[in-house]
Amino acid sequence: MLALQAAALLDRRLMEERSGELLRRLEEHARVAGDALLARALEILARDVRPPQVAAACCAALAHAAGPTAMVGGQVDDIRAEFQAGDLQQLESIHRRKTGAMICVSLELGALVAQATAPQHDALATYGRKLGLAFQIVDDLLDVRGEETPVGKRLRKDAARGKLTFPALLGAEASQRRARELVADACAALDLFQPHAVPLRTLANYVIQRSR
Predict the structure, then answer these.
(1) What is the DSSP letter of 140?
(2) pLDDT tens-digit profile, the chain (212 residues)
(3) In a 3-state reduction of DSSP, which class is residue 209?
(4) Which of 70, 96, 164, 173 has the smallest set of CB atoms within 10 Å of its CB?
(5) Does 79 reside within a domain?
(6) What letter would DSSP give residue 194?
């Protein structure tokens, strides 16, 4: 999963910097590295997960999350939305297929390996969808009002690139409220796990408080 996340991050950085030095000097290497990381992620699942039926289900889930109807499709629609009039439904659709898909498949892989029940799968899927949107809202807010050193990347670039963002549509304060609501909903979805949900609730609270 870390390999796929790294591949997704490479693709995102290439899109963010496609008119800058990174594109001119490193695009080919970064693209190849992204392809290699995705292949490596599938190799690890196929080789190390047992039984084979679960390994196959994990590979299928990961390939779907990384593919044209999820991460790649979300990235394409994110580019297409630049300097276009958009709405909240469109924006949420984009990020459910990008950040949301990566979070959801991470949870799905764990559920498949642990042979979770159908209600547990559903609870984790709800948690992942809510947390994915909350993560992106916070990411958009950090670009507007974060500080570059702790965040670790260039800021104030979304507006210049005509990006469709939550603060642009809702305003910063309403976006912050929406993120908190989503995190609360995500945590509520974990009630059936009782004490075992503590690590996931801690992760959700980190997302709303993060500065990078």
Answers:
(1) H
(2) 555 555 555 555 555 555 555 555 666 666 777 788 889 999 999 999 999 999 999 999 999 999 999 998 998 999 899 998 889 999 999 999 998 999 999 999 999 999 999 999 999 999 999 999 999 999 999 988 865 545 445 556 677 778 899 999 999 999 999 999 999 999 999 999 999 999 999 999 999 998 77
(3) helix
(4) 173
(5) yes
(6) G
Per-residue burial over 127-166, b if 16 or more Cβ lie within 10 Å, else e, is: bbbbbbbbbbbbbbbbbbebeeeeeeeeeeebeeeebbbb
- How far is Cα of residue 84 from the mean position of the Cα atoms in its chain? 22
Please give the angle made by the CA atoms of 34, 38 and 39, to the nearest 5 degrees.
Answer: 115
Q: Is residue 14 part of a domain?
A: no
pTM of the full predicted structure?
0.83
What Cα–Cα distance (Å) separates residue 85 from each residue in 32, 88, 90, 137, 172? 34, 11, 10, 18, 18
Question: Position of tokens 């509520």?
Answer: 188
Task: State yes or no: cis peptide before 51, omega within 30 of 0.
Answer: yes
Indicate which CATH number applies to the domain containing 147.
1.10.600.10
